[in-house]
User: Fold this.
Amino acid sequence: MVSRCSACGWTDWFNPAPTASVLVLRRGGGSGTAVLLVRRAFAPARGAWDVPGGFIERGETVEAAAVREAREELGVEVRLERFVGIFPDTYTFRGERQPSLNIYYVAGLRRPNVSIRPADDVSGFRWFPLARLPRRLAFRNNRQALQALRRLLGRGTDRPAGN
Assistant:
């Protein structure tokens, strides 16, 4: 969608805003590999499960943004391990629809036994086994990225956990 201002001639190309997200994994244990999801404290999708991430700031690399978002949302340092994919979506806030380009990485905690300290935009967090992901995810791109992750790790489709 393109719009032009008739007064000044400025063109809004309605380009997507880039985001960076981290699929933080915990490997092993009784339930196998688990992914860390956060519960959104604010709109849009308040109360839904989300992948830690957010918009990339001007002049910031995608990788730096992914690491920063994990630190800001969870108080943890992560190490990026693998690129997962890019998933276009639409971010709707207060009736405004903004196209987004959502870039995902697999990450691990730099210190596995670190205490996770959610920020004010996160009302909670939980480790979900990849075989039992929650039904209510905040965005379509979350589900797409989690499905891509399962394919990368050689697992089948997810069964919602009922959350």
